[in-house]
User: What shape does this take?
Amino acid sequence: MTTAADAGAADTRYPGATAAQPSVVELSSAPDRGEAAARAEALFEEAFGYAPDGVWSAPGRVNIIGEHVDYQDGLCLPMAISHRCFAAAARTPTDRVRLRSAQDDLVLELDARDLRPGAVEGWPAYVAGVLWALRPHISGVSTQGMDIMIDGQVPLGAGLSSSAALECAAGEAIEALLSLGTSPLERVRAAITAETDFAGASTGGLDQSASVLSRAGHALFLDCRDFSTRAVPWDLASQGLALLITDTRAEHSHVDGEYTARRADSEAAASVLGIDTLRDADVEQLDELLGRIQDEVVRRRARHVLTEIQRVKDFDALLAAGTVRENVSALGALLNASHDSLREDYEVTVEQLDVAVDAARAAGAHGARMTGGGFGGSTIALVEADQAQIVAEAIAAAFAEHGFTAPEFFLALPSEGAGQDR
Assistant: This one.
């Protein structure tokens, strides 16, 4: 998903994330889910002195294609990854909420009845904000007190949406503890509200949707206009393919301002064209539409959004027509075109992102692109599974040649959305 919060994650240590370690050319994988849940349970007992009622978790995500279009009612194709944020929690007979994190020394206690935007700062806002956002469903609940221990395995600052994983894990725990009866989509909306209205970060909803609604072995086709979704087969492992994530570890700078500017440019383009959002434009009339936009920068921003939405449609059509293997070249070409558009028209890449993509393509990747908000973060490359190591080594060598901080690599498997673990 494209969010200022996610793009700027280097500035806020979400407990649903783990700081990147010095990298070697090694393909990392997420900890075993059962073992990670047991660890969260043990951490809860150590912090609070009794056993939790349960452990819930939600995954980070990677967006396969459909970048910087969510806030224009566009189409996206994210998938959940196996790196997750865990929330061990228990209900208490009070209105006190106590929050702890395995990744932070902060100890926070607050009264659930006093929750309001601006009352909580830092990572706890992404947990408390979900409880606040679920208030319309809490009527009749006598008390809202709970103890929550957060333990995360989503890499920090990599553009893999540690914030959404944190919100959605908290949402699953709160739903279960208070027996609210909310639907998955209602919990998605609560997580979005927590991030935008309570924590004060900008989000289009892609991250939270992927974190809650994804299915193992599938990507999630998401219509950002009405939040309708459907599962799309994306079982790479069975077809000898892999999705290589490269965390460039590039430092983010001026991210919030740049994100806001891109959003404003796309809104300006829609205004010039006399439509509510660029999703309403007829891409078959692309040249005529772009010719009506006099500002050259705004024109390029519009071209990215319009063509990116079409690329998602084309990607989806290919997956409906056959397997990933059968259409791997065409799918890779769409990934390449997406990155080129983000680099040239939307201007949200940085040198590390471009070097990683170029090196992956040169090393034999079928396609590669940046993923997430840009200005740092990660890239993805669709590769032959037995070539993933070679592609990673090529990227690492290119980074060393440019004097960049060594990147970190992950193999992403399309994983299950949020749920209870213990």
In short: Residues 241-412 form a domain with the Alpha-Beta Plaits fold (CATH 3.30.70.890).
